[in-house]
Specification:
Rossmann fold
Length: 212
């Protein structure tokens, strides 16, 4: 594992890895851990947007909808150009969820010196994410994120189902586009956290070796 991590650090440089998946697939959990392993900085578009909604008293996503594209561009894309991130690799969580946003994300990332070098898709079935959602209702804790409060959009089943539908309708075409560009790295994620992390590192390593 250590040799693979060292290789990935060298390959990634100050580039970016973007992580996608259904709600409750473990994007933030995987992203935070991967960033720690790679000595990278972690950025979640969902976290940024929810913080900005609170700050500006907006409610774009509380019903399970994705934030409008113009709002995403305004609030999230500027993070790529932040001076405090200039010399760091980035691990992203769902940055550019709506079909068409991926081109702007790649442009902004490249212009800031953080080119998108791989896009990880955590593959979990709808049945699995629904089981995870039900567990959250029982325990009051997100899987792997027991230090964080349950999000408002995790509490209502209709809202959660809307988020799943938004992913299928608007984000899967983004995944198809990244696949066409040769950037997509699918990873089976219906395992334990430790097994998922091992699979993510292994899949990224194999991908990076082929790119070299």
């Amino acid at each position: 594992m250590e040799e693979k991590i060292a290789f990935l650090k060298e390959w990634l440089g100050t580039g970016s890895i973007d992580i996608f998946g259904l709600p409750m697939s473990g994007k933030d959990t995987v992203g935070i851990k991967l960033a720690e392993m790679l000595g990278a900085r972690f950025l979640s578009s969902g976290m940024i947007i929810r913080a900005m909604e609170k700050e500006e008293n907006q409610h774009y996503t509380e019903g399970g909808d994705l934030a409008p594209t113009d709002v995403f561009y305004k609030w999230v894309l500027p993070y790529f150009g932040r001076e405090d991130l200039a010399d760091s690799a980035l691990v992203l969580s769902s940055v550019g969820r709506w079909s068409g946003e991926e081109d702007k994300v790649m442009e902004a990332a490249a212009n800031a010196g953080h080119p998108i070098k791989a896009v990880v898709l955590l593959n979990v079935s709808e049945a699995d994410v629904m089981e995870r959602w039900e567990l959250v209702q029982q325990t009051g804790q997100r899987i792997g994120q027991d230090q964080l409060p349950v999000r408002a959009d995790d509490k209502e089943k209709d809202v959660f189902n809307k988020r799943v539908a938004e992913f299928k309708e608007k984000t899967m075409p983004v995944m198809n586009h990244y696949q066409q560009l040769g950037l997509l790295v699918p990873v089976l994620a219906d395992m334990t956290r430790e097994e998922v992390m091992e699979a993510v590192v292994d899949s990224l390593y194999k991908f990076a070796v082929k790119q070299n």
